[in-house]
Design brief:
The protein has 2 helices and 25 strands. The protein is mainly beta and 307 residues long.
């Protein structure tokens, strides 16, 4: 009897996770997903030519959108349209259950508001506002959209770097690149709350904070070139490094792994990389042309897995 129980337990423990190979239309990529994965690929795109959104195990192109991101609770899609309407940029909020879409005006032409960042409670979206100056787009501030109220408020921020972008902190403030480090801003009025010098910029475009919020992934400053730095959120100091040099990071897989695009045999691969620098699971092979076309990926945590 005891032997039978031990055998049954062994079978349960060693049973392989169910795997699905998901085709990504337009990208020539197959994404290898397993049951129990802590994150789920929910959207992707190639540059600003159009976003692809997941329903079930299929992705459909959203021709009118340059980007799309599912909320952490899986209920709402935030989409940035590819064109102005009546001289205004906007954020489109689509209820996944009903299919109803609300258009929230954000900024007036020639400003743009894009690069969606959701708060972890799914209540607000932050967008980076840009203005074209001398033929180059420059960050000018941010727009915060209240999902329930359907309102947008834009704040101009002085002294930003041209390529800066805004993301939420777990505590509900906004963080952006500033010089060789970071600045934390109040989402209410853009007031500077904290400056972290010499730590390197956030990896972006996904959440740079670990699931617990205790660590942040950064592109290392020059003294640690070719590595990913891990900053302690409480102290703002670099507390560790990952000895890898990825092309991009798309957020955290779990508390001890990140999602990285790595060069591989003349092309690329999307992989789960441990904080020890070791490549674990390969999630997808990415052709050179696909990466060169500006592939971006958006993942959603387990809260939205079944939607």
């Amino acid at each position: 009897m005891i032997a039978h129980i031990a055998l049954a337990l062994s079978l349960v423990v060693t049973a392989p996770a169910a795997q699905a190979d998901l085709s990504l239309p337009g990208a020539n990529v197959k994404y290898h997903e397993q049951s129990g994965d802590p994150v789920r690929l929910t959207a992707y795109g190639l540059g600003t030519t159009g976003a692809y959104l997941r329903t079930g195990d299929r992705f459909a192109r959203q021709r009118g959108l340059s980007e799309a991101a599912l909320s952490p609770d899986g209920r709402t899609v935030a989409g940035v349209p590819r064109a102005y309407r009546s001289g205004h940029d906007a954020l489109l909020l689509t209820d996944r259950a009903t299919g109803t879409t609300r258009r929230i005006r954000t900024v007036k032409k020639p400003l743009t508001a894009s690069y969606v960042s959701w708060t972890r409670d799914s209540r607000r979206v932050a967008l980076t506002v840009e203005r074209k100056t001398g033929g180059r787009w420059r960050a000018a501030g941010f727009t915060v959209v209240d999902v329930k109220a359907g309102t947008a408020r834009t704040v101009t921020v002085a002294g930003m770097g041209a390529a800066a972008g805004f993301w939420w902190t777990p505590g509900g403030n906004l963080i952006a690149t500033y010089g060789t480090g970071l600045r934390v801003y109040s989402a209410a009025d853009g007031k500077v709350l904290r400056t972290l010098t010499g730590v390197g910029p956030p990896t972006g475009p996904e959440d740079s904070f670990s699931p617990s919020g205790r660590r942040m992934a950064l592109w290392c400053p020059a003294r640690f070139a070719g590595q990913i730095c891990l900053a302690d959120t409480a102290t703002g100091r670099i507390a560790g490094r990952i000895a890898v040099e990825p092309e991009a990071l798309f957020g955290w897989w779990d508390e001890s792994h990140v999602i990285a695009v790595m060069a591989h045999r003349g092309a690329y691969r999307l992989a789960v990389v441990g904080l020890d620098g070791k490549v674990g699971r390969v999630l997808a092979a990415v052709p050179y042309r696909t990466w060169a076309a500006g592939l971006w990926l958006s993942f959603t945590r387990a809260a939205a897995r079944q939607r």
